[in-house]
Amino acid sequence: MKLGVYSMQKVFFNGDASSITCNTRSGEITILDNHEPIISMLEHGTIKVIDEQNKEHYIPAKGGFLEVNSRNQAKILIDEENA
After folding, report:
1. DSSP state letter for 1
2. Long-range contacts at 63-66 (CB < 8 A, ≥ 24 apart)
3. Dist CA 74 CA 67 (whole Å)
4. Would the CA dihedral through 12, 77, 43, 79 be positive or negative?
5. What is the C-alpha to C-alpha distance for residues 29 and 27, in angstroms, rounded to an integer?
6. What confidence category does residue 83 fall into, taking pLDDT thresholds of 50, 70 and 90?
7. Domains, the chain, ranges and CATH?
8. Burial, 64: exposed, middle or buried (Cβ in 10 Å; 0-12, 13-18, 19+)?
9. pLDDT digits (tens, 9 = 90+) for 8-59
């Protein structure tokens, strides 16, 4: 899936990902390719992204928003830990 992870200050990830794991208000979720559309608020924690080369990326966040659309695209807007 196409993924962009952004804060107001910078871009943390922009590319293809095979999975995203993050903390939402309902608990931890993992998003895989072709996930159903979802919009969710994120809780404090670390977002784990596994890219198409199976490399893991860890992005700390105070909170934020996750959107997955029907075109296999995901966007995450976060509050940075050290902002």
Report:
1. -
2. 65/39, 65/40, 65/41, 66/20, 66/22, 66/24, 66/31, 66/38, 66/39, 66/40, 66/41, 66/42
3. 6
4. positive
5. 6
6. very low
7. 2-80 (2.60.15.10)
8. buried
9. 999 999 999 999 999 999 999 999 999 999 999 999 999 999 999 999 999 9
Tokens 């992005």 correspond to what residue?
Answer: 59
Token output for 6:
């952004």
Which residue, 67, 73, 61, 79, is CA-closest to 23? Answer: 61
CB atoms within 10 A of CB 69: 14
For residues 48 and 61, the answer to whether their CB atoms sit within 8 Å is: no
Q: Are 70 and 54 in contact (CB under 8 A)?
A: no
Q: What is the DSSP letter of 35?
A: P
